[in-house]
Write a structure and sequence with these properties.
This protein has 250 residues and is of the alpha/beta class. It contains 8 helices and 12 strands. Strand 9 (187-189) and strand 10 (197-203) form a beta hairpin. The longest helix has 15 residues, at 212-226.
């Protein structure tokens, strides 16, 4: 794979582009371990459903600027993180320009195809986050039913899958339906971000159900520990009407 890569900066934020104006990642220079883009913050919303237990094993499909990898590695020190990135040049840029940490016993980067990795690697994960697009906003095999089914098989009990979808693309509804099919409907789709991204969460058999008031308490705890503020996300979810009885279900 030969990915065209551009770097830009504005107002203290460094941006990653794959040969277009579309932002593939971002880092605020004064807060390199924070999640700058709204959708990356919402990709961590699965932490709210972990009942106070941080994930021990995290799999990230797609590296980009390394925002989620850095966040988990820095703020969840008990978690081990594996990142799968198909383009070695993206890995190199993340290290050179976006302060991606060196690999150690808690952090590894695997250069390869994310769909193939999930299909063949037998490990179980407490949290899988999928954020893989090319410069044309295509997810390829990462948007397929077999991939979502394989993700379900790789989740540990009470594990959460988080997927970045692009709501403005044709085929978005089909992609969401595939996710629901793979997880027997245990999917919570968050309201579309200003960028057009839609983050969907899916859970293992048995499902999870939490009232919004409890989720807000957990969000406050998460903010206190990591600085990540998901309260605006919960307010948007409440206003969207997706939880008419005040309960979020996975």
């Amino acid at each position: 794979m030969n990915t065209p890569i551009d770097i830009s900066e504005a107002s203290g934020v460094r941006y990653l582009h794959f040969g277009s104006d579309w932002v593939q990642g971002a880092m605020r220079l004064r807060k390199p371990n924070a999640l700058e883009l709204g959708y990356t913050r919402e990709m961590m919303a699965g932490l709210l459903f972990r009942e106070g237990r941080w994930p021990a094993r995290v799999l990230l499909i797609g590296l980009g600027a390394g925002s989620m990898a850095k966040f988990v590695h820095h703020h969840l020190p008990q978690a081990s993180v594996t990142v799968v990135e198909i383009a070695p040049e993206v890995h190199a840029v993340a290290r050179q320009y976006f302060r991606l940490p060196d690999e150690d016993e808690r952090f590894e980067v695997h250069i390869g195809d994310g769909a193939e990795f999930v299909r063949t690697d037998p490990r179980q994960w407490d949290l899988i986050a999928v954020d893989g697009f090319d410069r044309h906003a295509r997810a390829g095999a990462l948007a397929s039913l077999p991939f979502y089914t394989a993700c379900r098989a790789r989740l540990a009990p009470e594990g959460i899958l988080s997927v970045n979808l692009f709501g403005q693309l044709r085929g978005f509804k089909t992609q969401l339906q595939r996710l629901r099919s793979a997880f027997n409907g245990r999917v919570l789709s968050l309201p579309e971000c200003d960028s057009g991204n839609v983050v969907a969460l899916a859970s293992t058999p048995g499902g999870q159900s939490l009232d919004l008031a409890n989720l807000k308490l957990r969000a406050a705890d998460l903010k206190a520990v990591t600085g990540l503020d998901l309260l605006p996300t919960l307010r948007r979810l409440e206003k969207s009407g997706a939880c008419p009885d005040g309960t979020a279900r996975l």
